[in-house]
UniProtKB/TrEMBL annotation:
Belongs to the TFP11/STIP family. This is G-patch domain-containing protein. One of its GO terms (biological process) is spliceosomal complex disassembly. Residues 256-283 form a coiled coil. Residues 93-139 form the G-patch domain. Residues 143-156, 170-181 have a biased composition (Basic and acidic residues). Residues 12-24 have a biased composition (Polar residues). GO terms for molecular function: nucleic acid binding. Keywords: Coiled coil.
Amino acid sequence: MERPRFGGIGSTGSKTENKSSFSAFTKGGIGSARTAPIATPTPTVAQVAVEDLPSTFGSARTQRSFVRSGSASASKPATPLPAHEQAHFSKIGGSFGARMLAKMGWEAGTGLGTTGEGIVIPVESKLRPKGMGIAFKGFKEKTEQSKLEARRRGEVVSDDEEVKPRKKKGDQQQKKSDAWKRPKKVKVKVEHKTYEQIVAEAGEEPASSNIGQIIDATGRTPREVASIADISLSSWTPSTDPTRIPEVRHNLRLIADACRTDLDGLAREAKALEERKKWIVQEDARLKKKVADEADLIARMQQVTLVVDEINSQAKELASVYEASLDVFSPHFSKLLTQFALEFDQYKLDEIVVAAITPIVRRTIAQWNPLQDPFGLVSTFRSWKQALKVNVVDETPKTQKPMTPFESLLWNVWLPKIRTCINNDWEPTDPHPAVKLYETWSTFLPPFVRDNMLDQLILPKVHKAVADWNPRRDSVSLQTLVFPWLPHLGLRVEDVMGDARRKVKSLLRSWTAKDEVPKDLGVWREVFDPTDWDNMILKNVIPKLGALLRDEFRINPRNQDMKPLERVISWTNLIRPSIFSQLLESEFFPKWLDVLHIWLIQPKVSFEEVAQWYSFWKGSFPESVQTMPDVARGFTRGLQLMNKAIELGPDAPTKLPRPDLRAEQVAASAAAAAKHSTPPVIARPARVQEITFRSIVEDFASLHNLLFMPAGRAHEKSRMPLFRVSSTVGGKGGLLVYIQDDAVWAPDGDEYRAITLEDMVLRANR
């Protein structure tokens, strides 16, 4: 580290010079100037005495220490300071020390001392690198301040005076570990040089604008030529020497790279301009098309306006006519629909259509009788169906859709007229006018208007008519009130049919065996469920028919009354064949076989008469009844009895056994129960999905000549309906059961227990 000099501030020269000039200088204090011995005269004693006096004695000094002479100031001009020193001096310019120095003649940028030969910049210190001794490996310890001062004094100072610090071992290892990594891309700064710059860097003067001496440097040996034309191209040989004219190669490479970059930029710009041009062309075409479309739309709207004006003028003319016709609007509406269909939907021109016809429709409906002329206005409206937008499906998802103009017309003008006619002029006993009106308009009306007409106007009167219907008082049948409306009821059919079914059941409950079969009762069989129909017949009809045969029917070959049997046979098509055959087997054939047995045991029996009597009774039943299994078995049993009597001959009166059809039925049932461990599957006319466990039990009972009839009450604990399984039509005896959980429950003491179907048959036949 450079040691500071301990001479006075601003002291210059060597010790020898100071000693030799000691007698020649006066005492000037710090910073006193040095003069040559010859240039300064020898002072007098008085001058020395005065100058050597202290200042306290009042002697005035002729010159201050830092006040420089003109020659000294001129010889040492102010030195330019570095930027950081300028900032430093400007920062301390107002301090006490700076003000004191300024009073003594010091200025920033000048050296200390009277002649300005002292240091300009304050002394700096320089830190020696760690682990390095004094002057180790030629380390120069001069600071920047020392170098600047040396240069100011005119000394030559080299900048290459420092040795780079030793690299740490860790840094070397770090560089080795980073050797495998991809080197970072360093952006090369492109520097363009002109010909003049290259020539100037080479140290030559640029050539003048006019062509001077021409040197042919294309060959191995440069030669001077008079003109460019004298250069022989054939004498030129290409060279691959990369050291030739490196400046030109460098500039050409830079120019080529720059040109390539410019060309790429120009290509991209050209592509962008081309795309922009295409877009502008497309946008121009689109805008032209839009302008043309707008012009066409304006023209079409003008035409639509003309048609609408014609419709309005026509409506105003018809407003003053008493009997106006709507047909005059048809050409205008057709023109709107055919020529301006898009505008008709877009601008909702159906409002104009409805507004034009509303006054005339209002007057026409006021004079219209819907029940007498159900087709009024419907033909005209049907031809305008598209113009009125009848039943057009709106695909927009809305919770509540407003009515269309035509729907509003129907709701406010047409429906009040219909309501008045149906409430005041129509009777449900004559349903055809209202049915015809509904069928004519139903497909043309919107759903909410159609439902309002059916639910609020028609069905309430139908319900009341069904509730008030009395077969003894009313001349109109029940199906006349209900059946015409069945195709139009939809989901409402159960409400109407529920009332009708209750009326039919009430009719059968009040029916007696002496009465004829209720009129048109057969048509209701298809309306009821097969099981419900059979239960209703078993409960309300079969007991009465059985009592009729049992109490009023007598078999008398001499005077036979066939009316009770004919009344029973009239129910053939209304009763299930198995039930009807059981009725005849239990109430008719026992009497018939008893009379036949009495006849056959007579001493003088005429088998020819017996045969005729047999044929008479068999022919008394329709063919459908004769083919019933129980009926055929009864006649077969009579035929067997006749054959037995013929075989016995004279011993018939004593040996011909009396037929006991009841005992034979019980024996046959027991044999069938023992033979069939599981109930056989019986074919039913009903649909497969209607087969239930109850229907299986009924079929099994009918297979064993038993009736499965509702008892009309319920079990006390389970609250399930009770049924009576009996062989007699009157329901006497037999077995009470109920069905629950696909099992038959029968009494066992005080409790009901589940039993098999075979046990049910055996217990019912006891």
